[in-house]
Fold this protein.
Amino acid sequence: MTFEYSHARPALTVDCVVFGLDQRKLQVLLIQRDLPPFRGDWALPGGFVQIDETLESAARRELREETGLEQVYLEQLSTYGAVDRDPRERVVTVAWYALVRMSDHRVMAATDARDAAWYGIDDLPSLAFDHDLILQAAQKRLQNKVQYQPIGFELLPKKFSLSQLQFLYETILDRELDKRNFRKKILSLGVLQELDEYETNVAHRAARLYRFDRRQYQRMLKQGVHFEI
Amino acid sequence: MTFEYSHARPALTVDCVVFGLDQRKLQVLLIQRDLPPFRGDWALPGGFVQIDETLESAARRELREETGLEQVYLEQLSTYGAVDRDPRERVVTVAWYALVRMSDHRVMAATDARDAAWYGIDDLPSLAFDHDLILQAAQKRLQNKVQYQPIGFELLPKKFSLSQLQFLYETILDRELDKRNFRKKILSLGVLQELDEYETNVAHRAARLYRFDRRQYQRMLKQGVHFEI
DNA sequence: CGGGTTCGTGTATAATGAACACTAACCAAA
DNA sequence: TTTGGTTAGTGTTCATTATACACGAACCCG
């Protein structure tokens, strides 16, 4: 079956920059292309938008199909439409970024033949299309956004220590933070629920665990208070 | 001539939220549709992306064709892809917002048959498609952005008084600012060039005029200082 | 039980934000 | 020319927030 239009139409795709955090570094999930163009190169997971799905649905579907990820934090980044960004034909892509708990989503099955792998953000291969551009924009957006929205928690296990949280901010923002000031600030926001649980299997004093309390956050917003690191 | 594709493709459009500032209020430029759907309704200026132009080019072209505007500040907002946002067929639109100096761009010629007019932001007609949604998002974005980027100047004449600038921020942010604190802050940024010119034709003491100094701003950025109101 | 490692905590000082009122300049109208 | 009306322009004080900084407690392991 074919579809006819009176004017030429750009193809429309979605691409996702998927961030994860491990013990060391911020990571990005890439897939290896097994079709031309850029066959064998690494690229952002993504693909064509189908005619009966929203842009977000398309992004989530591609994530599921290419990387096995579901129910991740997902937000639109920007749309890229350089005329020659795809050598085959005109392709406009709506870029998204996702935050995943690497601990929860250990499994990484690419249901089609391609490979998928995490790469350290400072250790990336060169990417297909304009995907390095998109990735850079996503990183900047993430850096900005974590400072005024509590999205960083999406990268941590549900229960985490304050040191883990500080490490997250230091890693994303790429600068060191003062331990005491950080704890003062984050606790004063009142959006962390202090648990009666502690780290286990550590060779030193175990840290108390906390959980992000979405309800407290909503309440905070209604009072016009701003989350800000 | 027709174009054939093996899969159905969404149509791709651009739409622009054009902001202007007059003596009273923040204004938005709308056009009146003379074709179905939503014939006779007001809508954001916009139209189809052609196969050989970038998204930004398309936005600028549509602005020129429908409103006569050229060389305005233009920035991508977000992309809207609800499946039923256009009753005719699947249409995905890349939304932009523009800031114009209403003083410079008095002329408002719609080269096609439609009407174009400024509407106060608090006095809008109901809009075609999901354009009210887009407009609301644009307003929020503008409110955020003026607070950490010097884009407000794009709405003022090249030479302006500090009172005009304060009025701009008060209007966009929809809250009152303290006169002395505002002046202290904005001057301390060192991005305003003090001119030896004053208002004319005012029935009271004439205010000194200033000009935004882009070079000083760039220098400021390089030193890691942040613009912030 | 000693060494190694991370956890958890408070205070003092500097910088920034917020509140606040009067005189100066200019025009217009009497 | 005087008076009234309107906006311009200007500093200080106090409260709040940001920054810098060090050591004992807890726990594991060998």
